[in-house]
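hey so u asked for the seq, here:
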Amino acid sequence: MSKIYEALQKAQEEREGVPPLETERRRRRAWFRSRRANGNGNGHREPRSLRIDFDLAPDVEEAYQRLGTNLLAPSKDTTVLRDLMVVASVHGEGATTTAALYASTLAKRKKLDVLLIEANFRTPALEQVFPIRRNGGFAELISGTQDLDTVVQPTPQQNLFVITSGHYETSPSNILEAPQMSEVLARLHERFQFIVFDSAPVNVYTDAQILGARVDATVFVVEADRTRVDEVQRAKRQLERSGAKMLGVLLNRRKSYVPSFLEGLI
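ran it, structure tokens below
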């Protein structure tokens, strides 16, 4: 079976010009070595490098539309979803990209006023995804040092707004556990029809466990061919133990090693 798998993979690489498997392995090892987060001395992580292409391929866009329809469709559960946390087990599995694309799809297709909040204080990236200013963010909003109108920033996409993580003087866990957090969320829900939270990885920090208990639902992002089963199980246990409502798992970056010309015949 392994020989068939390798033959199909090689055929796909030769047909589409995909780098050999060993090259991919080396790239991943180099990526892991470069994942050391750097602090800037003021209680805030330097933004990581991230670029998101919002001009999605038709099949990818359809998948996100299906996700939005399924999450917002009426069900036997009478609870109306007002917000959603997107989280992964560890860094680099695509939670931020998933959160941004999902928020974008809701704003574009559902015509909702959608707010994307960067609740990932550890490795923020939205400043590189959207053309926005550094004028405070979620941390300042919760602490009361900035008001809502200041930290909410529009994006080039209609109906989509962003709040970055901001700068903090205390532990991010303390920020999310602050007594005024409930009041802040209530004000945000009055202004926006749906809120998407991008959270720090649950197996690395406690932030997602704290936030998960406060939001209506959680979607867990798993990277195909990388995320280990034991990491997923551990993350699921931690989220459920904290009171997070798990809606499901999103499989990210799935690759098919069946050549496209053959897959079309199956």
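Strands lie at 83-88, 114-119, 153-154, 160-163, 194-199, 218-223, 246-252. Residues 2-16 form the longest helix (15 residues).
lmk if thats what u needed
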